[in-house]
Design brief:
Elements (H helix, E strand, L loop, with lengths): L3 E7 L3 E5 L6 E6 L6 E5 L5 H20 L9 H12 L5 H22 L10 H13 L4 H10 L23 H20 L15 H9 L6 H14 L4 E2 L4 E2 L2 E2 L9 E2 L2 H20 L3 H6 L5 E3 L6 E5 L8 E3 L3 H12 L23 H11 L13 H13 L7 H8 L3 H15 L1 H4 L3
Antiparallel strand pairs: 1-2, 2-3, 3-4, 5-8, 6-7, 9-10, 10-11
Helix pairs in contact: 8-9, 9-11, 9-13, 13-15, 14-15
């Protein structure tokens, strides 16, 4: 394309000019280490302003070359693709799933779509502060509601059934969730800084709501003994329930259903899934495993200890805290034996909790949440929502409050794959109750 008004602003190094179809000046700069030229718009129409801006751009280019920084600005998407091509190789399967899902659901919609895939250098600390405002309101915004709506009738790409993959999403994210996302952003931008894609690391901090933080730090949502009993007693009948709803009768004969009324008849596979959930709940409450540890568990991971003559589970190395041997209560294996007797997948390499095709069950939370809601125990007395993870907390509470087994915090922490500090932080109230006699005796 022909150039007009061509003049050097740095002799033999940088020149400005205009194009026939534009009044804005372009700058053409030599790139010493790249070879050839870099051409950019100055964004200026006035020749004096264009000269000054072009000179500034050229000296900034030299500064980048001297500091071994990237000359060409990279967008958020380009930077993520580059980072993930390196970092994904070092992550566990569960970590890969979390990172890719978080970028797909939240980071890309915000940084790529909302901020128009802005280059990393152009992002400000305010952009990250605004991210958390956007994130907190996302699932109650029009865009979030529309996404949930569109997912409802979408076929599961791993099978023929239809269900919403976003059906159990938290409308308001927990502080812990925001904290994990902040840590992931820090990890990503720290890598970008080390690779000289950005001149500095941005300030990223998840917002704290004191009431929520104190509530979550104080205790984890568990079950009382009465609530847990209510759950497992209800599930005894629930696994045998034939129909949901009842066909109306008039004078002893079946009548037509009213508009909106339905009778759902359950098939054998459905009952098997119910029985599996029942065994899963009982196993989790008696083992203290994390949901992802149970998800990855295979029948071959169950062993006998020659030293203690007790059964234990070898937790997989690809889980949160890596490989360890954990000793559930003996009753946990009774529930596993019952589950195994009804499963077609019982080889050592088969997943313990799987679907009808042998694939690991990804999440029991949605069905369990429905059951807890029906029984009126979905939330604890402080308003904390219970989930599958609450069964792990129930296990910890029971083990620490046992009058027969004098279990030390350090011993329980080792068995559960966590730190004594974490156990003390979330369950110290139990220790206070255990020494109530001492505390109330003069």
């Amino acid at each position: 394309m022909p150039r007009e008004n061509y003049e050097w602003v740095v002799p033999d190094e940088a020149a400005i000019y205009t194009r026939p179809n534009s009044s804005k000046y372009q700058v053409r700069m030599k790139a010493p280490v790249k070879g050839g030229y870099i051409i950019k718009s100055t964004g200026k129409r006035d020749v004096v302003e264009a000269r000054k801006h072009a000179q500034k751009m050229y000296y900034n280019l030299l500064l980048k070359i001297e500091n071994k920084q990237e000359i060409k600005k990279k967008s958020f998407q380009q930077s993520y693709d580059l980072w993930w091509s390196y970092d994904s190789k070092t992550k566990s399967v569960s970590r890969v799933k979390y990172i890719e899902g978080t970028f797909r659901r939240y980071f890309n919609p915000y940084f790529v779509e909302n901020l128009n895939n802005r280059s990393l250098e152009m992002l400000t600390d305010l952009d990250f502060e605004d991210y958390f405002v956007w994130r907190i309101d996302y699932w109650v915004s029009d865009a979030g509601k529309e996404k949930i709506k569109n997912q409802k009738n979408r076929k599961n790409n791993k099978g023929d059934q239809k269900h919403s993959k976003l059906g159990n999403v938290a409308k308001v994210p927990a502080y812990k969730t925001l904290l994990m996302e902040a840590q992931l952003l820090k990890q990503f931008f720290s890598w970008c800084h080390r690779r000289n894609l950005i001149p500095r690391q941005p300030y990223i901090k998840a917002p704290k709501n004191a009431d929520v933080v104190n509530k979550e730090k104080a205790r984890r949502p568990s079950f009382t003994n009465e609530e847990y009993k209510k759950l497992y007693e209800y599930m005894r009948g629930w696994v045998k329930e034939k129909n949901i709803g009842a066909q109306p009768r008039i004078n002893g004969t079946f009548a037509k259903l009213k508009e909106g009324q339905a009778v759902k008849k359950k098939h054998a596979l459905h009952f098997w899934h119910r029985e599996q959930l029942r065994n899963y709940v009982l196993f989790m409450a008696n083992s203290g495993l994390r949901p992802n540890e149970a998800r990855q568990m295979r029948w071959g991971d169950i062993h006998w200890s020659g030293y203690a003559e007790k059964q234990f589970v070898k937790v997989r190395a690809t889980t949160k805290t890596g490989e360890r041997d954990t000793f559930p209560l003996p009753s946990a294996f009774t529930y596993l034996d019952r589950h195994k007797s009804s499963s077609r997948f019982t080889e050592d390499e088969d997943f313990v909790f799987c679907d009808h095709k042998g694939r690991p069950i990804q999440d029991f939370n949605k069905t369990l949440s429905t059951l807890l809601d029906k029984l009126g125990i979905k939330y604890d007395e402080s308003g904390r929502k219970r989930s599958v993870y609450s069964l792990r907390h129930f296990y910890a509470t029971q083990r620490l409050s046992s009058k027969d087994a004098k279990l030390e915090i350090e011993e329980l922490a080792e068995n559960m794959g966590t730190s004594p500090t974490t156990i003390f932080q979330h369950y110290r109230h139990i220790s206070t109750h255990k020494v109530a006699d001492k505390l109330t005796t003069r």
